[in-house]
Structure formats: structure tokens, C-alpha cells
Amino acid sequence: MSKIYVTGIGPGLYEHMTEAAKASLEDADIIVGYKTYIDIIADLIGDKEVMSSGMRREIDRCEKALELAEQGKKICLVSSGDAGVFGMAGIMLEIVEAKNSDVEVEIIPGISAANAAASTLGAPLMHDYAVISLSDLLTDWAVIEKRLHCAGEGDFIITLYNPKSKGRPHNIESAQEILLKYKAPETPVGIVRNAKRKDESYVITTLKKMNEAEIDMFSMVIIGNSKTYVTRDQLKMITPRGYQL
Known about the structure:
The chain has 245 residues and is an alpha/beta fold. It is built from eight helices and 13 strands. A five-stranded parallel beta sheet has the order 3-2-4-1-5, sandwiched between helices. It has a five-stranded mixed beta sheet with strand order 7-8-11-9-10, with helices on both faces. Strands 6-13-12 form a three-stranded mixed beta sheet. The model has no long low-confidence stretch (mean pLDDT 95).
């Protein structure tokens, strides 16, 4: 029976993948995905047929997955983190809808980068938070700026995806400048690189000093709200939920 699994593989390490994600890889005839993510799960694929491609080929991968599924194949389209958070779930469903296809699509959730990074930092996301990507490849920068202003004014905890790359080195600086209009300079900021992967590293700093730290496309930046604080040993961030101790 033809089917497409859109599978969130989480951060990448085997122990942080759901059983449903592993089962979808096992059930599929063909695995489709971005080459870097395919390499991460190579040990789980075995001798299955694989179709991989590079960055910015998301539409091509989805169209190929649908083409193969309509030939009667079971396809697993892999996505890092959670497939529904800046992942492949949306575009896959859009393409199936646009082509009036009857192929079944099942979305398999995974641990998002925001949640993976938060667990490393302690408990920074214990209250309302906003998830914002600083990539302006698909979203106008003016829209991103507006969302940063709104999240800052609302005292949300803010998680920043795609914070910095060679092609957009200054977006993170602009984000910092905007958020300093609403948040105190000493607001705790956690920066986690390669969250829940073998070479994971992290630092806890402040909003004022965050751009002194190493930030790249493998980083997640979590900016606290007005109540967020750092533990005595300076190793964890906590955002109180509001319980009376």
C-alpha cells in the first residue's frame, strides 16, 4: 500500500528518536531526505534504497517522495527535529493537496531542536515562549522583525532557530538590538550547539553579551523572560512556572 511517512528524527542520536520514528524507517521501502540527515541515521537504514539531496531541495524531495508513493511504494521522508516545526511536514502536505493525490501521509513527531536545547540548559521554557527563525530565505525580514518586537513586548521566552550563517551574519545582531528594547541587558541567554548530539556544547550568557559567543547554524539560542534566572553554579537556566515554594 502506498504511503508517505514524514518522520521527525529528533536531534539525531538513536536514544532520542521515538519508537514510531524507528518503526517508520523500518516499514518504508525507500528513505528520502537531506544528505546530512540521512548520514545521521545511516545505521538504521541498512540496505534500504535511499534518495538524498542537498540544501534548498525540499520541494524536489517531496515531489520525488510523492512520485514514488504513487507507484505503490512506502516512503519515509526524514526531517530533523520535529517534522512539523520548520520541517518537511508542511511542504509535503501542500504538494499532496496541490496535486490532488490520494496518497496517505502520516506525520511522525520528533523532539524539536528547541526542546532538545532546553533540556540541556535546564528548564528555560517553563512558561509561554515564542519560536522564531532568523532565516529570511522564505520569510521577509520585515516580518521577522515585527515578530521579534511582538515577542519582546510580550515578555515571551524566545527560541531562535537559524540564528546565524555566512550568508546572514548580522540578523542575530539585529535581533539582539530589537530585544534589548524590551528585555533587560542581564536577561539570561542559553546557546546550545549540536543539541543532544555527540559534540554538543553550550554556554549561558546574557542578552547584552550573547553575540560574543560562538553562534552558527548548528546553534539554538534561548532568551529568557523577565523571571528567568541562572542557578548558583551558573550551569542551568530556570524560568519559574509560578508555583509558590
